[in-house]
Write a structure and sequence with these properties.
Layout lengths: L7 H15 L2 H9 L7 H23 L2 H26 L11
Helix pairs in contact: 3-4
């Protein structure tokens, strides 16, 4: 690294930026989550519950067993909710602009 020194004004600005970053809850949440806040658990859960729902749908149609139909009826809304959460995550912008400096 070179031996460039910051002026007093630049150091003050840098300290202010660091202070704002330390108090930013979105940044703290993303840093705590790791890997940019993107987890593989939700896509895996959507895939597994979707496959299970499809299986229960097919078996319920073929057998007309009330237990299988109720299992599908219970799992399908959860699958839709998880799918909606995943869709919202995928459409969320990656970069949220920081608040303007005062």
């Amino acid at each position: 690294m070179d031996d460039t020194r910051l002026s007093l004004r630049e150091r003050f600005i840098l300290k202010d930026i660091e202070r704002r970053l330390r108090h930013d809850p979105r940044l703290r949440r993303r840093m705590r989550a790791g890997s940019g806040g993107r987890s593989l658990w939700l896509p895996l859960a959507v895939t597994l519950s979707g496959a299970t729902s499809l299986f229960l749908l097919v078996v319920g149609i073929r057998t007309s067993d009330p237990g299988v139909i109720w299992a599908f009826a219970g799992l399908w809304p959860l699958t839709l909710i998880q799918g909606f959460r995943l869709l919202c995550r995928w459409t969320e912008p990656e970069h949220v602009p920081p608040p303007p400096l005062r």
